[in-house]
């Protein structure tokens, strides 16, 4: 290195510092393990070559089953769903796998007078990324709501749109996230 080349510092890259400073043992539990109606959203985070990302971090934010956010700015009043905290965080394991235990969200108001289909907002942090990427998880059984959702219906490529629809699993849903390449998950510019 010469004197004019800056060195990489922790503020210039996301990983591997995620597991040092952002690990939260209770993070995957948006609700308690024995909460009625709890479902798992499980998946694998992979890179552009399809390889697992073992040092990533997945964060979720969502409305409660009544479609209210746990935030004072929700014009309908803050959520008051017992035992639900709306936010989840899970770091990926050595196989790139993650899991969030939560409740199915309700529909929420969209732009103008639209209604957004039930969904979960997802932020992805990983090595080599200067900023998080943001996507959404939609649920396959909400066919009509998904078709009318102003965000999901704005994605015209059916293959791309399918990357946002979770797949049913034994104890909830499967939602794999691919950062680049073939079958890359749709990410939003926010």
UniProtKB/TrEMBL annotation:
NCBIfam families: protocat_alph. It comes from the Bacteria. The gene is pcaG. Keywords: Dioxygenase, Oxidoreductase. This is Protocatechuate 3,4-dioxygenase subunit alpha. PANTHER family: DIOXYGENASE, PUTATIVE (AFU_ORTHOLOGUE AFUA_2G02910)-RELATED, PROTOCATECHUATE 3,4-DIOXYGENASE ALPHA CHAIN. GO terms for molecular function: ferric iron binding; protocatechuate 3,4-dioxygenase activity. Its EC number is 1.13.11.3. The lineage of its organism: Bacteria, Bacillati, Actinomycetota, Actinomycetes, Streptosporangiales.
């Amino acid at each position: 290195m010469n004197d004019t080349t800056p060195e990489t510092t922790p503020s210039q890259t996301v990983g591997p510092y995620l597991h040092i400073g952002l690990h939260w043992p209770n993070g995957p539990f948006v609700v308690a393990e024995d909460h009625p109606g709890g479902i798992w959203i499980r998946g694998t985070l992979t890179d552009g070559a399809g390889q697992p990302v073992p040092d990533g971090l997945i964060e979720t934010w969502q409305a409660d089953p009544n479609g209210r956010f746990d935030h004072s700015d929700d014009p309908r009043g803050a959520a008051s769903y017992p035992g639900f905290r709306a936010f989840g965080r899970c770091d990926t394991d050595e196989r790139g796998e993650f899991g969030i235990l939560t409740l199915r969200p309700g529909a929420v108001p969209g732009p103008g007078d639209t209604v957004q289909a039930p969904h979960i907002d997802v932020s992805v942090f990983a090595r080599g990324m200067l900023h998080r990427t943001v996507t959404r998880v939609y649920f396959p059984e909400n066919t009509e709501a998904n078709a009318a959702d102003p965000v999901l219906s704005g994605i015209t490529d059916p293959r791309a749109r399918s990357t946002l629809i979770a797949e049913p699993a034994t104890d909830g849903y499967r939602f794999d996230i691919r950062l680049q390449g073939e079958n890359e998950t749709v990410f939003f510019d926010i």
